[in-house]
Structure formats: C-alpha cells, structure tokens
Write a structure and sequence with these properties.
Acyl-CoA dehydrogenase (chains A, B); five-stranded mixed β-barrel; FAD (chains A, B); oxidoreductase activity, acting on the CH-CH group of donors (chains A, B); homodimer; Butyryl-Coa Dehydrogenase, subunit A, domain 1; AcylCo_DH/oxidase_C (chains A, B); AcylCo_DH-like_C (chains A, B); two-stranded antiparallel sheet; Butyryl-CoA Dehydrogenase, subunit A, domain 3; 12 strands; alpha+beta
C-alpha cells in the first residue's frame, strides 16, 4: 500500500501567508490561546498522526466495515482505538466545538483536520457528528443539559448523531412523521418513530450515543415549522451524570454502502416499546403548534455543509497526491516528442501532466475557496465588530451551498482522474484511489443534495435582504478585478476573470427577472439552478486561486526568500493560470446555456423519459 | 431489488427503422440466415433472458466475487450455469464469431447483446473474450488449430483470453518480456513469462482455457514489432482433440477490484517449470526478428474497442432506466412552481428531469453513434463491394477511438447522475446503480486508455492515407448538414451542428499545422488529444441523434402510424434537441481551449506537481 502524503505546504501557505490570521488570532475568543507560533506545531504533528495513526486503518475499515450483530454495530478495534486516541489527546471535537474554551479558530482546526479527513473520511465522520451534536446542546440546551452531556461528548466518551431523515422524508424533512408525546415533566417527551441514514446511529465508539432528533410534538403544525428538537440518549443519563436504563432506541439495520464502509449508517427505531424519552431543546410548541427544531438544526448547517465540501476536497486532494506519486514512480512509454529516448516515468507524458494539473488546479482553488469560508465563519462567530460579523455571516451563507456542492460534485471526476493516472492498478483495491471514489460519492447527497444547495443559492441566498447581500458579495468580485487588473504577468487571466464576473452579473439579473414573471419563467429557476451555482463557484474559486497567485508572484520576487520555495510559488502561478484558462471558461459556456434556456428536458413526454 | 428494465423500443428503432438493415441482411454472409422477421423474435426473447436469467445473478456476482483457492478461481455456481446456458443455447459466442456460419450481423447481435451486458457486465466479459480468442484462431490459425479449438470455444465448453499486459508493460505493450523459445517442432514454442490483468485468465467456466499470448520469440526484434502470438491452452489439447497434461500455466493471483467482481482478473505465470507449450500463430520471425503478433491482435481491436464503448453505453443506459423508474415511484417534495400542491413523484421536479434527460440524451446519442460503427463493421467485413468495404473500414477505424473513449468517459458522470436521482438510496448496495459505477470504471482503462485512444485518433486515424480518410469522414458531416439544414423545426439545431462541424474542421487544420512544426508545437499534440477526441465524438453523436430525430419527425407525421408510438418519437425529438443545446456546445468551449493552447500544465515545476 502506498504511503499517505499531503500538501502541508499549501495548508501552511493558506494559514501563514495568505489569510489574515492576525485578525483571527486577535479575536477575543482565541487571543489567549492561539497564535502564529502554534501553526507549525499543530500542522506538523497532525501530519504525522494522519500518516502514522489514521491512514493505516483506512483500508482495514473499508475491508472489514461495520459488523452488525444482535442490534450492535461493531467497528474494527483499530478504529475504536484511533477514535479514542484523537478525542482523548485533544485532536478531536474539543478543538472544534463552541462549547470548548480552548476551541481553535476554524481556519486552524480545519487546516489540520483536512489531513485527518483525507487519511480516513469514515473515521472523521464520527468526530464531526459528535462535535455537531455537542454544539447544538451548547447553543440551545439548558445548563443542566450542558453539564450532563458536553464533557463526555467532547472527551470522546460518548458520541453524537443528528437524526433528520426518515424513510419517507429525505430532501423534504418537513414531512417527518416521528412524534414526540408530552409527559408530566414539561421538558421530557416520549419519542416514537423511525429515522434512517443516521451516521454513527449505532456504534461501539463510546459508552453512550447522544442522538439529536427532529420530531413533531403532538399537536404540532404540519411541515417543517412544526418540528421540535430532542436530546435522545441511547442510554438514559441520570441527573448525577451516571448512566441509567437503556432508552428504547433500537438499531434495525446498518446500510450496506458503496463506500465509507467503516462509517456505520443506521436505521433507528425510537420507542418501539413506548419507552423512549427525549429531552426537549428550546421552547415547547407555541399556540399555533410551531417549534424551532429545524431552525436550531440549521444553525449548525452552514458549518457542516462547508464541512462536507471540505471533506470532498480532502479526499480528492489525497487521491491527487497518490496519483502524482504514482506518476513519478511508474515507468511506462517513451516521450511523444522524443520517441528514441528511453522509457520514462509517466509524469513525463503530457496527458498525465494534464490530468495531474486538472486535479491540482481544482484542489487548490477549492481549498482556497473553502478556507475563505472558514475565515468568514470565524469572524462571523467571534468578532466584536457586529457589522463586520454580519457581513461575514452573509458571505458565509452565500459560500455554503457553493462549497458544499462544487467540491462534492468535482470530487467524482477528479478522483476518476486519479484512478486513470494509475491505469489498471487504480482499479484494484491494492491502491488507495478507488476507495476515495467510493467514499466520496455520498457527499453530493448528504447534508442536502446538490439540487437542494442550488435552490438554497438561487431561491434564498441570492435573494436574502432583497438581494443586497448577494449584490455586496458580487461587488467584492468586481473590486478584486478592479484592483488587480493591471497585475504584471496576469493580464490575460484578469480579463478572463472579468468576463466570468460579467457572466454571473448577467445571470443574477436574469434570475431576478424570472421571479417577476413566475408564470412563464418559474420552471427555469430550478431547471438551471445547479448551473448557476457552478458559475458562482467557479468565479469565486478562480478569484481565490488568482489571489494566491498574486501573492506567490510577490513572494518569488522578494529578495532573499528561500529559493527552496521557488517551485511552490511558481507552481501556484501555473495552477492559477491553468484554472483560469481551462476550467473557468465553463462559466461562459454555462452562461450561454442558462440564457438560451432550452426547455427540452421539460418538454419530453414522461412516457419517453421512463422505460418499462 | 428493483426490476431490470431496458429500452427495447430504442433498440428496435435502430435496427428496424433507422439503420439500413436491408443492406446488411442482403450481404452474402447473412442472406440465407437472417432477415427482418428475426429482429423482434431475437430482441424480445433476449430481453426476457436479460430480465429473468442474467440480471438476477448480477448482484450475487458482485457480493460473492471470485473465490481464489489453491490456484483455482471459482465463480458463484449461478454464474457458471448462466454462462453455459447462454453459450449452449445459441446466445453467446457462436452468434458473434466470424468462425461461425450462422453468425449474426454485428448490428443485430449487438442489439440484443447490449441488454445482456447491461444485465451483467461481468458475465458478458467472458463471452466476449472467448469470441475474441476464437476469432483470432479463425483468422490466423491453421486448419488444425481451427479444428482443435473453435467448436469447443464457440459452444462454451472452453473459454478464451487475450494476454497482452505484463507488470512492466501496460500501455506500452512493446516492452513485454514474456519469451517464446523454439522447440524441435517449428510450430511449438516454450513460453515463459508473467501476464497480468487477464480477464478470465483462471476461471471455472469450462473444461479448458485457451490463452492467446503475446511473447517475444528468442532473437525477436525489440519493441512491438518483435512480438509473436501463441495459442497457449491451460490444459494441452492432443491431436485427437482430447485433453492432455496441464500446460504449466499457473494463476498467481486474482485481483481485488473496485467492481466487476465476478470477472476474474488473473495474474498468470507461464512456464514456471519450463513446461509451457504454445502454438505459433502466423509466421515465425523474419530475418530481422520481426513478427506480426501485435498486428494480428490488433486486427481484433476495432471491434473489441467499440465493444468496450458499447459495454459502457449498456451500463449507463441500465443505470438511467433504473433512475427513471425510481423517479416515478419515489414521492418527495412539492413542485417549485406550485408549492401548495401535494407531494409528487420526484420526476415532477425540474432538476430530476434535467438529470434524466442528460442521461437519456447521452445514452441515445452514443447508442446511435455505436450502431453506426457496427453497421460500418458489418459492411467492411462482408460486403462484396470492395470500395465500399474499404470506405466503411476507414470510417470504423475513425469511430473506434471515439466510441471507446467517449462512451467509457461519459459513463462515470452519467452513472453518478443515476445515483444522485436515487438520493441516499443510490449510495447503498440495495439499489443497482452504485454497482454500475464500480463496474464501469475500468472501461476507460482497458483495451487502451483514453489517452491511447486519443493518440490513436490524432496521430494515426486523422493522418492515415495522408489524412484523406478523415477528410472524407469529415466531409460526410458537412454533407449531412448541407442536406438537412432546411429541415422544418430544426433550424436552430442544424445551425449549432454546423458550428460544431466548423470547430472540428478548424481543429483538424490546427493539428495538421502542429505536425509541420514539431519542434515548437509537438507537445501540444498529446496535451490536447483527448479534447480533440471529445469534439469529434460529440459532433458525430449529435449528428447521429439528429438524424434519428429527423426520422422521428417524419414518422410522427405519417398518417395512421400508431399513436401509441407518439411519445417515443416526440421523446426522440426532445432528446436530440437536448443533446444539441446542452451537450454539443462543449465542442465550442473545447475548441477555444485547444486553439488557445495554454501550456501551464507543462510549465508547472514537477516538484510543485508532486507532493512528498
């Protein structure tokens, strides 16, 4: 099995050179705990852990998967040990959770966490879910809830889940039928219903599992506004923190999935024996039966959707690094332009370089885009400057669907390139790349499908506050072009970027006009939504990598900067150029298609579209 | 598990209405055996077999895979039975092999075989390889070879393989190191070497396995021109046809692959005990050590590369049909343009329609393109009109890399759409679509990677006979546009097609100019080769589906043609429009990129491209 390698240099470039980490480290939340001097320590040590501790279990997790016996889901022992190692040694949820006083800035946490996700996506899904559940309790729970649950969760003794999906309520979560029945204790409800696709819904990672469950209280309004949120421990937690009785939560099945096989995806039955208790989070239903369960759940969504995009990025990056290493080691064929030369490592072949460069450009542009998202989230969450915080929240809101979808949709073709570079070897499970393809495919589906994200963009984010936030976001793109269009050596690239900017501006006006003529144009909104999202994402990704290239160009010219970094900076410049010349022009094509608004997909008779 | 459905109507449209099957059935080879009246019989019965016999074993093959014990590769019993059923009942190699007097036209054979490949790609790989090996013996073997091997192979008693790849010779087959040592008998050589990625290299389908092995005879020239071809039976075949001693062919390993798990991919050692005998095919090496082994092998390549593209098509088509059926059955969400309406089957959502239509358009355009390829091959092989046969051979030569690569590269994103339509369910192995993704990925690699195909196009096919064949092929595209540009209702589409034609014409000139200035432009040839191939393929696929739509438009207007076919024909018109408006414009984008000829992928320092 090939050795795990990761682009530590690019991560350090982002957090040490490119992003304004000074501003982040100066936020009150972090000021006393973190600074520039921590970056190398954290990232170097994390890289070592990713290589030596996490990656070695990744293939075993894939091969062995989750054993499901007598209602118990059993992970390979190495998985359990590694999970505990991370949580107990301060590499897990405690670094990310709002509940933790020593939580890191997302920008820093995510820089090292990216390597962990790349080393074992299945393992890290448990950490992420536990953090997410803990954050919900921290934000919306009572002091008692926090006292009972948070320490145990953040230290990894208990794991956490989020339970939204049901067999008949997936993308449309408002149709959930799980019910919550009041008891004599106003904060305690009896829960009854079935949830599915619950990551870590049953697993032997810790002594208990804390489920955050959406359910409809009796008399609750229909649709999503009637859903409440409940803490449902697998084993009841007594007031003194000790474990009580099992809480009537049964695992019915563990899904047999295409990938992510060590991530236990459970179908759970709550209250089969009418004996499942949940603790209400937030207020009981109001007089019209409305609850804020989904709104609370969504409070966490920005970060976890960006997290899904980040997961996709980590996987495609790892696949790219494996492919690049294979390409220098594998000897095959002779150079096309010099066939008399001997056999060469395949990286000498132009088409292999094209594939590697395509991966590198997507990976680095998407990574740049994502870390700008984390930067916005850090400011939004912790800045004392409320105006700036609000602006950053708005930008993060816009970036969320772009990152989630563009990264997860791009992972699939990029990992295919990594397989292709490996040739037949890439199709075997002796090499790591095929597993990434299988592991990553879920990411365009969970946490809201690509279409859900696209509609979130065009129907909500582009229109929030009368479209003013999106307008401000778009104006930032214009300003970047304005400020840099004379940048030496990048004239052609800035022109292409400006053309893409004008495309997105045009799309925005077109979509605004659709809303004014819903009868005739309404169906075009969802029909082209994903293509609109792709245009916005490629524009922002291109700008982000361009911004990095501008910095790299300055660094190269600084006298005395170690020449050992020349290749990195020169590579960054080539990468930005590649992205802008070879990937960004898809925006022009897509804009033409969006404007042309062909409706043949709607006109085709359904009987012709469906066979049999 | 969902039921297998397939678009029998589209297959019948192709062979009953669209292609000139009259011409095919009138070829001397087929005249006495096949006619229009056979089409329905064959296709209807084959569909039944695909649904009832083949598809039911497909998932079991994936779950169980190949067991490798004591050097033996064991398939699930149902697999072996089904293979024998097909071969013994006239549904297998005998219908396809040149050796068979009752072989069908490829156009007809492939129409039903497509459903079989869709129902179980792994199973059909054995049939295909057996046919391929038999055809080699038929074309180039002696009468004795034919007598000893063909009947047994075509009846399925013995299976066949083709052994090219070695651990250090994959894409560069000329570097093969397997050796052939002469013996006292001038037709018998001792074979020694290791071959890998051999489909069916060891398997319990029949009593014997006939390997067609490329090896370098002692004193043979270096490179591919020194390779000879040898028949190497797993068990020696005595002159009377009875089985003799085991022939010192050892299976070292069966690969653990991402998909196609019931297709045994073997690593074989020939002559470990210096006791492996091979029968020379064709002439011994000439005075300069040259043999025609690879040329003979390549004689079969056109058909088997188109076959690989066809396999990809079959799989993406099956995935599409499953997705479409799921989309009418799965209830989720409310219409965007009418949110007060109740929940609807997801096919009512515009984005689901977009995904289904994207799949339908690619599937039907690629199918049309592929069947034109089979038509050309039928004429090329069997026509008495030698000029026409030569022209069709030339067109088939051009289409071969287009079909192989465009279909296999397109399968991956299309099957991802089929998964996406299924949502989380598509990620589980309870539904069939994820298996198609895993099974199909190899197709862009085996029988020559996409890059090998792209170079075959730009470096060989575009230039053969001084480029005159490609020029004639391109002129056929121009003529189609000329003849149909006034077609009522398709004005916009014909314009777009013409623009794409002009793009390809421009690319052709550009590439010709590269060859005149190799020093400066040479490296652009491989760098953009795959994009050139995509442009040619999309142009031809668009023309093919457009041609079908023109026929459909005429059929719709025929008085009295059963209105029950209205949906099919109207769907065909929508599909052609979708392809031309939404897919074909990629040709414009790619042409811009090819002309711009950005070299950043070559300029990036290797140290920046490779991590670690």
């Amino acid at each position: 099995m090939a050795e795990f390698v990761y682009d530590l240099r690019d991560l350090k470039f982002i957090v040490k050179e490119w992003l304004d980490m000074e501003e982040i480290f100066n936020l009150e939340k972090f000021r006393d705990n973190y600074g520039f001097e921590d970056i190398d320590l954290v990232l170097d040590e994390a890289y070592k852990i990713a290589r030596e501790v996490i990656f070695p279990i990744n293939k075993e997790g894939d091969r062995t998967g989750v054993k499901f016996e007598n209602g118990r889901a059993i992970l390979p022992p190495a998985y359990v040990e590694t999970y505990r190692f991370l949580q107990e040694n301060g590499w897990g949820s405690a670094n990310e959770s709002l509940a933790s006083e020593t939580a890191m800035p997302l920008t820093l946490y995510r820089a090292y966490n990216e390597m962990f996700m790349a080393a074992s996506p299945a393992l890290m899904s448990y950490v992420k879910l536990t953090t997410g559940a803990a954050n919900l309790i921290y934000r919306f729970g009572t002091d008692k809830d926090r006292r009972l649950f948070l320490d145990k969760m953040l230290s990894g003794k208990w794991s956490g889940t989020m339970c939204l999906t049901e067999p008949n309520a997936g993308s449309d979560v408002g149709d959930a039928t799980t019910r919550a029945y009041p008891t004599d204790d106003p904060r305690i409800y009896k829960i009854k219903g079935t949830k599915m696709f619950i990551t870590g819904g049953e697993v032997n990672l810790g002594e208990n599992i804390i489920h955050m469950v959406l359910a409809r209280p009796e008399g609750g309004a229909p649709g999503s506004r009637g859903l409440g949120l409940y803490i449902v421990p697998k084993i009841w937690v007594n007031d003194d923190g000790s474990l009580g009785e099992p809480n009537d939560v049964t695992c019915i099945a563990i899904e047999n999935k295409m990938g992510l096989k060590a991530s236990a995806t459970a179908m759970l039955s709550f209250g089969e024996n009418d004996n499942c208790r949940g603790i209400l989070v937030g207020d009981p239903p109001d007089s019209e039966g409305r609850s804020k369960g989904l709104a609370m759940m969504f409070h966490m969504m920005n970060e976890s959707r960006i997290g899904t995009g980040h997961n996709a990025l980590a996987q495609m990056a790892a696949a790219y690094y494996f492919a690049a290493r294979y390409a220098v080691e594998r000897i095959q064929g002779r150079p096309f332009t010099n066939p008399k030369a001997g056999r060469v490592p395949i990286i000498k072949h132009e088409d292999i370089r094209r594939m590697l460069m395509e991966m590198k450009a997507q990976v680095e542009a998407i990574r740049a885009m994502i870390f700008r998202g984390f930067y916005y989230l850090d400011i939004a969450e912790h800045s004392g400057d409320r105006e700036k915080a609000a602006l950053c929240r708005g930008y993060a809101d816009i970036l969320t669907p772009l990152i989630k979808t563009y990264a997860s949709e791009t992972a699939w073709p990029m990992i295919a390139l990594a397989i292709q570079v490996h040739g037949g070897a890439g199709y075997t499970e002796e090499y790591p790349v095929s597993q990434y393809a299988r592991d990553a495919k879920i990411l365009s589906i969970w946490e809201g499908t690509s279409f859900i994200q696209a509609m979130d963009l065009v129907n909500r984010k582009m229109r929030m506050k009368d479209g003013s936030i999106f307008a401000a976001w778009l104006d930032e793109r214009r300003k970047f072009i304005e400020q840099n269009k004379e940048a030496r050596g990048f004239g052609a690239e800035m022109q292409k970027l400006e053309k893409a900017y004008r495309c997105v501006a045009e799309i925005r006006e077109l979509y605004a006009s659709y809303y004014e003529n819903m009868a005739e144009k309404g169906e075009l909104i969802p029909l082209y939504a994903l293509r609109v999202l792709t245009c916005c994402a490629q524009l922002f990704a291109a700008e982000s990598i361009m911004d990095q290239a501008l910095l790299a160009a300055r660094k190269i010219e600084e006298p005395g900067t170690g020449h050992h970094d020349y290749a990195y900076y020169a590579g960054k410049i080539s990468t930005a150029k590649y992205f802008i010349h070879n990937i960004l022009p898809h925006v022009y094509l897509l804009t033409d298609l969006i404007k042309e608004a062909d409706r043949s997909a709607l006109e085709c008779p359904e009987e012709a579209l469906v066979i049999g």
